[in-house]
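Exercise: predict the structure of this protein bound to pantoate.
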Amino acid sequence: MGIPILRTVAELRSIVAVWRRDGLKVAVVPTMGALHEGHLSLVRAALAKADRVIVTLFVNPKQFNSPADLIAYPRTEYDDAVKLAPLGAHILYAPDAADVYPQGFATTVSVSAVSEGLCGAFRPGHFDGVATVVTKLFLQTGADMAFFGEKDFQQLHVVRRLVRDLDIPIDIIASPTVREDDGLAMSSRNARLSAAERSAAPRLAEILFETARRLDRDHCIDRVLVEARQAILAAGFSQVEYLDLRADEDVAIIAAPNRPARLLVAAWLGQTRLIDNVEVWSPRGRVEGFVEAAAAA
Ligand code: PAF
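Solution:
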């Protein structure tokens, strides 16, 4: 049986009200569609914790700072619904933009500090768009828990902050980045890579993991990061927007190996912007991407 697709918040709320009356726990997995194994792993994690799982599919115009990027974003609702059905997710909520942002819509949710720097510096307005739509999706679904991938690490922290600041009663649960067998972090944008770019792309993750290992023994952070940038450019990337070390807990800037950290990168390969991140100085030890991909296969 296919997954039911709902378009309006009224339909969604009437179903969730019945679930709530029956005492069921509800999870939401927010997505922009073009689902890949990373999204499906979030859906599986949600199904393991909640009684009912809503997957949202909305290509949110407010988070695209380039109109061309919004137009080029893949829209594959039918395929997405086909991928979700066998997993047992309960609802695909795919509202129209005119319903999410009706005439006169005038509210923006803006999260300072954690939205600044990294992707926030290169994609003006992006996190306002994310924060606004995520707040709406949380309020519309009334879910008890929401699942996000660690690949969008800064986004995860923006969402955690807004939930705390606005007292939204929802648990934010993060799942590790899912990688291809060669280490490339899964992303809807990977489909845009040419064959030559696709073979160069895994170097980004390799360099991140190598750099994280190097930072375990070499604490001259600035030098290590400069050399890692050079390695990314030498691998065929045209621009490194940022390669930064931030606190794992709150993405604050750190300059010394005094707490668990994340090494985060955004870099352009041809016309495609790729982001990724890995743990550094983690008390849990580092999960190596290739091992993780093999375990997931
Ligand atoms: O990560 C995404 O796909 C989007 O930013 C999200 C969280 C679904 C909001 O549109």
